[in-house]
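User: Please predict the structure of the protein below. I'd like the answer in structure-token form so I can feed it into my own downstream comparison script.

Assistant: Understood. Taking the following sequence of 358 residues as input:
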Amino acid sequence: MNWLIVSLTVLLSLFGVVAVYSATYFRTSEYWEKQALWVAGGILVFFTVSVIHYRWVKWAALPLYITGTLLTALTYTSLGQEHGGAKCWLRLPGIGTFQPSQLALFAGILTVALFLSQFAKMHPFLKLLSIGAIIGGPMLLTIKQPDFGMTLVWIPVMLATMFAAGMPKRYLLAVLLSGMALLPLVINFGLKPYQRQRLVTFVDPQIDPQGASYAINQALIAIGSGGFNGKGFKAPNTQVEQGFIPGTTVHTDYIFTAIGEQWGFLGASTLVGAFGLLLMASLFCAHKSADHYGLVISTGFATQIFFHIYQNIGMTIAIMPITGLPLPLISYGGTFLLMNMVALGLVNSVWVHRREVV
């Protein structure tokens, strides 16, 4: 086992329960109790996946990709549920509500990694076209919901996996520049008015302080009021407790706001540092991988977790536009937590089997 990944995964997920509790205990015990059960199950999943050989996942990559894409398409039916203005949730009888685009992204990483490892000698341009065909369907389904945040995650993840697989840098630069050129079209024709308004308020948070800019301004006030040491765990009369941060999102998208207010700069920077160690340990596992497949999936999952961290924390301190991306291992939510546990378990599995000769 890579005990650094093991310890950080367990500690961060347990701290997530504490964070959800501190943000919601004064209203209800439902959220932190459910989160505690998900964490217990997630840790079990993490250890189980860690001891399973990651190469076995190759057989599940394509079925998972097809399943994730089909389930994402089902959000357009009567089974789909709207959350935060985007119809990105799916309710299946007997299973419950979950976000299938997260499964589609997870499976997309596995499928692209499988393709890159199997066709390593293919011409780079053909590789690029093939990867575009693989990720095009799930990305279009996700942006149409419209879930701009989850769509954005695909871009750095795919760039990182292709970089790890040895794709020439000029092709990666061409993809990046093409994406930047298409961004105005996506913003104007692929997003709803409230999502475009979020981009406007990101540029100027004071443009509508009582409307579109309300959430980001309150988040900045809450985090800033935490100071260096914070107001203290379960401190009374906080921005969170008084409801200035919406109760529907404070334990999901804005969980870092509650952490910053109660634990201050010291607690928030410690959390960021722990995430940094987890990411470096994941990339070290990729470096020590016994084969190409392990290298690519470890890099892909590390990038996915990194972008979620950067985007979630960034939107609460006004360095990124507001999107509905949760904070890995910390935010409330069973589907996302389990996906991250499986991903980190696979990274750990790459380390466990690093000395095997291919």
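That's the full token string. Residues 24 and 30 are 9 Å apart (CA to CA).
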